[in-house]
């Protein structure tokens, strides 16, 4: 193994020197054979691009040794596998199918990237939402609320409570938001966002809010040994209710774009079919 390492290290250095001195020689003329397994060979030109700039000679040698050893083991396993291919396994057919799948996948991705309209209007969201109401039934209760959690030792709690009483007004909302950004451990102040009840409950002192009282409570002020809490609940949804559009917007977006993608690809297939049909470039034989 030490001899192999020494030979590879010296070989790499010599090859780099020789390559620089013979840069006009045909490609592959000065390539070095690193390993062989039956009828397969590993050459330096296949491995060299994997070496990172700035690698020390020790790191390069370690990488080369590891790669060569792995290559040999993989190809020995491949050789053994080839000896045990079932007679009814159509390797060539599988390779053709896989190649075709890769080409189609690449072309479809290119079409989608260049031609898919990813802009979704509010009307499009609402139309989809109304047509698929049955798909958006809640399995967990939701809250639309404001929530702020601050450490008790921080200054400004009294001022925050005063602003909180008028948080519906833009001036006081801005003051609450500024304070929360600077001092709160956690806050939820997006008035259109919906949260799962359990997400809010786990941040509050025990028994402050639960599935039994969340729909009837609107203002909550609470504290424990470390934190003060403020909650204002604007709206609620229980299990079995239709989910709000804002809550399922991301899900709806994915479905809408997926449908557009399928429509785009089907349209392109039809365009190609009609074009090639006019040119008599395919035939269908019935039997």
Question: Explain this structure to me?
Answer:
It is a single chain. This protein is an alpha+beta fold. Among the domains are: 2-83, no CATH class; 138-237, Chitinase A, domain 3 (Roll), CATH 3.10.50. The chain is built from 9 helices and 7 strands; from the N terminus they run αββααααβααββαββα. Strands 3, 4, 5, 6 and 7 form a 5-stranded antiparallel β-sheet that branches. A hairpin with a 2-residue loop joins strand 1 and strand 2. Helix 1 packs across helix 3 and helix 5 (122-131) packs across helix 9. Mean pLDDT is 88; it is low at 1-29.
Concise account of the structure shown:
Helix content is 52%, strand content 14%. It is of the alpha+beta class and 287 residues long. Among the domains are: 2-83, no CATH class; 138-237, Chitinase A, domain 3, CATH 3.10.50.
